[in-house]
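Tutorial sheet, problem 5. The two components below are modelled jointly, 751 residues in total.
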Amino acid sequence: MPFLARPRKTHLLYAPFLFSLRPTHTRAFTKNVISITTATTSPEAYQNLGFLLRNCKTIDQLKQIHSLTIQKGLALDVSVYSKIISLCSTSRGGDMEYARHVFDKMLEPNVFLWNTMIKGYSRINCPNDAVSLYKEMLEKNVKPDNYTFPFLLKGFNRDISVECGKGIHGHICKFGFDCNEFVQHSMIHVYCLCGLINMARKVFDTSAKGDVIIWNTMISGHNKTGQFQESRKLFDEMEEKQVLPSLVTLVSVLSGCSELKDLDYGKRVHQYVKDGRIESNLTLNNSLINMYAACGQMNVALGIFCDMKDRDVISWTTIIKGFVSIGQVDQAREYFDLMPQRDSISWTAMIDGYLKMNQFKDVLLLFREMQAANVKPDGFTIVSILGACANLGALELGEWVRAYTEKYKIENDVYVGNSLINMYFKCGEVEKARMMFHKMPRKDKFTWTAMIVGLAINGHGREALNMFAYMLDALETPDEITYIGVLGACTHSGLVNEGRSFFISMTTKHGIEPNVVHYGCMVDLLGRAGQIKEAYKVIKDMPMKPNTIVWGALLGACRVHKDVEMAEKAAKQLLQLEPENGAVYVLLCNIYAACKKWDNLRDLRNIIMQRGIKKTPGCSLIEINGSVHEFVSGDKSHPQCQAIYLKLEEMTEDLKLAGYLPNTSEVFLDIGEEEKENAVNRHSEKLAIAFGLMSSSPGTVIRIVKNLRMCVDCHHVAKLLSKIYERKLIVRDRTRFHHFRQGSCSCKDYW
DNA sequence: TTAGGGTTAG
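Model answer (structure tokens):
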């Protein structure tokens, strides 16, 4: 600041400073500045200084006056220091370093100044500095007053609340401020921050509760910890005590209603607006839309949306989310296309809609549009995209997404990490999933569960169970889905006794009552191990009505172990639940064919024809150079169709040279043997393999995702091909992975 | 003190 070096030319150097003042102040300021520059330490100079300080509006003005007083050797009194410190601490462009500098020059700052400094640190979100200053204050025997604690606690974040919250509470009691309403309010805020909701509630319950803000804080605290019922109870209590809720109260309570999908209560809150007791604004209207949308009342939500004077991007996104939640993704898209502007949240809401409806290709298409629109994806978007990659088995794209998050420094939190683990497993990349897991700085229940499930479906049952043991060591609590993974690990590796004992311990050790899916796992476990009667007994004894998963598991076991009698029982039950389920007929046909029950097969085929039952077409996906190609059985729609069929012929020749005989035992069409061979030969996974072989360089892994179970013939062919062409083939079918290498499969032919 | 988005199975 050159003017400090040349004080005599003050009138010129101060020019920019003077221009920044409002016109009404200009004359007085000019006069006073000049009088300071000309006078010495006369009483008049001090008077002028007081005037200047009272009227200065910005930190810059203040600093200039301060430097001037130093120049002139004016001794400052406490009121001047106070003015400097409070302006630096509390104004918008404040300067805490400057405030601290001045503060440290003071011999015995009073409690007001300590408080002001603490308030300043809280305002700039430096709670650690505020706490050290508070400690310093105590060391210098300055007693805190009723302002100290609210100022101190206002700036607390979660970390420091956990670290010092309780200690500060002790001080509050010691200094006798535990009954001060403002202090109580701050305490509730801090306890809510660190999740100690019961402590917050204790403070709240002893407070006078006269002010609506304290109610709002408590309701918001309950919301943050997911205790929405408690929020509603408090709202009831407010009505009883005739405390008029504010707009904020209604927004918070509505948020709870949305979570609980409690339409009746939501309507009661809405009544406050309808009766004119609370005047609505944009936020409240958005909350109302969200509540009605969450409760599936899209017509009401749209009614409010249409009546609103102003709508923002949140209003639009809430409508989109509403349609997505009731599965009307096309309606959601209509509104999405109409939006005047979209941010990353709106894009993600729409992308997520496609993901929830299993429209994975639309997910990727919309993601490309999002990039073309120059909207930067964030962690939430990445999670959705990785979900689509996982479902499509699109490893290349998944890898690209990972590189993208690293390059653009998208927050790589536990959600993104979990999604990456899941994506790698669903693409059969076990090693990369493991690496991801070890790299994650924070792991949660979902991380462990993703590992257990992923290892299990990829055939590493033992490792999955070890992972479960580590999870318990890490004091992470398993949930019902973790146990589905654990039981699946036992099933896929044939660990029957372990499975039985886990089924018992999930209740005895973790209080998780098995649901219908867990019973399905047990039926699968026992059935695949050949204990079909025991499996049937599980179904008979289970406390709920068995569903299609349970009977389907039994039917699958009957196929593996060729148990016609039990298969018929299971199929009958399945068809009662889902008369149009083509897969059941197919499986039963497979079993009749495999057991050479030709009469039964013929009868069943007739029934299929009469009822017009359609089989779900087999469909295989393969990703080549970042594009996903889809094949159905006998597909001729691919642009490179001719070359694919040529490759298929070449493949068949090579297979026959290696001693391959087609296995048509699972073909139940009423056609000749040659046609059966033809049909088997055109299964979707064989077309995908042929395409993979011709489109990728030697030695690369071929990955395929199939919607149905692999047939015996395709499984056999894949094993042979892995040896003939020295290629690793990974096929993900409906329930598990097959890693084909050197002529054998990771499933040990047990699927 | 307030409104819109994400992870595990079948």
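Marking note: Confidence is low (pLDDT under 50) at residues 1-39 of chain A. Full credit if you identified this.
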